Amino acid sequence: MDTPNKPSNTTPTAAPKAAPYAIDVQNLTVGYGSNVLMQNLNFNVNYGEIFVILGGSGCGKSSLLKNLFGLYQPLSGDVLIEGQNITAAIGAERQKIMTSFGVMYQQGALFGSMNLLENVTLFMQEYTQLTQTQMDLLARCKLDLVGLLPYESYMPSEISGGMQKRAAIARAMALDPKILFLDEPSAGLDPITSADLDSTILDLSKNLGITFVIVSHELASIYAIADKVIMLDKATKGIIAEGDPKVLRDTSKDPRVHQFFNRIMSKDAA
Description:
- It is a single chain.
- This protein is an alpha/beta fold.
- The chain has two domains: 23-100 and 180-269, P-loop containing nucleotide triphosphate hydrolases (Rossmann fold, 3-Layer(aba) Sandwich); 110-176, no CATH class.
- It has ten helices and ten strands.
- The longest helix is centred in the C-terminal third of the chain and has 18 residues, at 191-208.
């Protein structure tokens, strides 16, 4: 006599939930040895947001950024990138997290001995199994996104500073990351070139849904692109303001915040 099949007691495994934030920073302390720059920082970055880290010179903006993407190890605390703790991850797990985002360093850091196309394909060669033809095609797509397709054969020394910054962003997008970290992208650029770069960032955010985390002190750029900012303070070693930069400019009662956000207006009024 056949035994009837018993109903299964197992329930289907639910699909893993997406992390609530693109980046979640928890109790992060940043510094070098006994020199603490920032302590017990807590903030998060939403998906698709243009998030800007700002503050006075020497407060630790770039150091914080480098802790966020794993170049430096924090003194304590955690950084979760799409729910994955990059601070605690090691080996292959850490490598997987680090290839899920792109980085543009302060000076662009393009390789001077390679043309723009070769610069963009460099990470593809290391981290993908694509053929050279496929890599070249994808690299041209990245260059096209930042308006540099006609310059693919140019060396970095043959293009302007603003174009070098855009090429560095194209290279940072080589592995199709959802998150891009940019360190002072407007540094050293004239106002018109800086505005062009801001437009590129806005287009990439709007059209591709890329999350940006940017260190900047350029107020015009901050007002033009930032959805949310945090302001670091060297004296207190913490965050003294967080939110929409225009709202902070108009409503903050903290004199440090007011002075930072209104310095251009003050000059105009003088």
